[in-house]
Queue: 2 jobs
Job 1
Amino acid sequence: MIKRDTLGRFVKGIDPWNKGTVGICKGNKTFFKKGHNWPKYIERKRIVKLYRCNPNLRLTENLAYLLGTLKGDGYVNYSKKYNRYIIGLQNTKLKFCKEFFNVLRAINLNPSLGQNKKIKGVGKHKLYFVVANSQVFYRWYKKLSLPKLKRLLSTKRMKISFIKGFYESEGTIFKRKDKKYHLAFINTNGNLLRVVKTLLNEIGFNLNLNGPYKATGLGKKPRYHLQTSKQQQIKKFITTINPSIKKAF
């Protein structure tokens, strides 16, 4: 809940992190104070401290879930404009963003959670975002190839956590006209979906990989579908993965 004083200003401890956004939850650590001019040598030291935030990269269910989300809606990139190594997510589901936020904290990163301000006449849904900064995580993630990822997810619990994150990003479940459910993962990376298909097979699910399908629109990449309409499998999938969002039952 965002708290304001009688003049509509943010109260201490809950402050918008950037122009055009509304702060929901700041990180635990503060590296810069708004409106304070630090000497350049202190600014450099603080930036180094920010980049060297040491995440826990030992594989846990939290890290496996994070990797699944990053292979879908999440992103890891370097911003030349701001000179930052960013791990982030934007989504209309606040519950999904909160879970992503908590997972980042669980691996010792220092994320912020906020909401983009609505622009008149643009968009019908609120858009939430989570961002964290870590050069260490950025370099580790960029070296993580699909074969390495597959080897890393060696236990059933880790596979389930990874698939949960990927499903909440790229998965969908809906009722068809015949009132039967259909489960699908849709992505432009066919090799990634092949890895996901293998992981699903190893925990007892057999989905069909189809495609590529030509996408409409200029510059859009062909899409692949990993899917099933088997009702028992779908019910078992939801029970096993236990997603926070996109629950059909």
Job 2
Amino acid sequence: MAGRHGKFLYQRSGSPNWYLRLVFPPELRTIHKAKRVEVSLGTANRDEALVKALPRIQQHKQELLMVRSMMRQQNMATEFVHQPGREYPQANGSKIVATSAQLIHIDAGGSVTKIEPNQPREKTIWQTRPEEARALGVPDERAATMVFAKPAKVKPAAEGPDPDLQLLEDFLELQTRTKHYEADARRTWARWKEFVGGRSLSKCNRADGQGFIRHLKAQNPPPAPVTLRKWISLLKAPISHGLPRHDPRQDVFHKLIGKTRVQTKRIPLSEADMELFRKEALPHVGPEERLMWVLMATTGMRPNECANIHEEFEESGIRYLMLGVGERTKTETSARRIPLPEAVLQEPDLPSTITGRLFAKNHVIILKNLNRTLRRIGIADKRKVVYSLRHRAHDRLRAALCPRDIQLQIVGHDEATIHDDYGKGHPINILKQWIEVIGY
């Protein structure tokens, strides 16, 4: 699988191991004598691979930061060559008197010889160190004329647990979270603590929060608004929970990010799209990609629901799944029974009996592979993605005049209705008849 820009870890087709990819900008290629480096991390465990790769990733990011600082003017300070309110004697006995608007030239006899504007000039403050500039090939004579930012003074961390990180841990213990959520939360808090130089929240203010948001937006490429909002929410939620009486003055991110609307509205895949995928893509995708496609297409299940499948049940000779049992679901009413359609039962990679995780590969990777396959075969509309299979399942059931309560038992729903409190819904054989209507 090819990695995207900004992704350091990736898996190659046919290998369970994770690989590290570092791509160098032109300024670093002469130093490393390569455009990119790709190395195997020797493990199929992503967390273990990340730990192995972290030192090289950190060094790589430091080099990128250095290059970006050298290649663009990050901080601009306005200054006067001749400071207003001062006089500047000259070697010939004349002098220059500076005001905020003019430079007045006076000769040795006291006569004004010239008046010109006193204009400030911009000074570039490079966010790096002289030795780093020289390492990038900047000549010594050029480095001698450059102004470098003074390194920030970071006080040594106090001994004992960090109270800010304890806020995060307390929040994560409130309820079961996915490992991806926890990893994102810890990674975002680490970025925040690095940005503020290790200072505690009690010593930060809204200006720090605003600066952090500008820092995140300055990434290349910049994050999408939805992604930026997610990062800030990972910081705000523990703060709001940890403060005994929520006070906006103590929340450095209070009202810094407005509501973000979903930018792309998903639309169902057409029957022509489905036929194109069956002919051009399904025979060529990996076994787990194929199984997830068929499962989502014929049931309308969500990707994370597919990823959580680890056992099956049987009733009246019909194999079925129990979704949302012991798992976090989108809503409480997402818990439901799903009979396995005939198309899924015919898949060669479906076990004769599901007794463990159905998908070994991370479902996010599977979705990325499938979405790229959609684009590769010519389905270019960005509103059409793998999740569009769920919208199609809704439409197929409605078109077949499927009773609404059965539709909700098959695809799940967002609001609790009174029928949820009675028994376990329709018999599995009734659900089986209707789920076959969806097809793929």
